[in-house]
Amino acid sequence: MIPYGRQEITQSDIDAVVAVLKSDFLTQGPAVTHFEDTVAKYAGASHACAVSSATAALHIACLALGVGPGDMVWTSPLTFVASANCALYCGAEVDFVDVSPSSFNMDVSALAEKLKSAAILGRLPKVVIPVHLSGRPCEMAEIHALSLEYGFHIIEDASHAVGARYLGKPVGNCAYSDVCVFSFHPVKIITTGEGGMALTNQPVLARRMELLRSHGITRDPQEMEGEPHGTWYYQQIALGFNYRMTDIQAALGTSQMTRVDNFVDRRNELARRYDALLSNLPLTGPVECSSSLSSRHLYVIQLHLEKIQKSQRQIFEALRAQDIAVNLHYIPVYWHPYYEQLGFKKGMCPQAEAYYARAVSLPLYPGLSDAQQDYIAEALEKVLHA
Ligand SMILES: *Cc1c(COP(=O)(O)O)cnc(C)c1O
Question: Which of 51, 270, 283, 361 could anchor a disulfide with 243, C-beta 3.0 to 4.6 Å?
Answer without folding.
Answer: 51
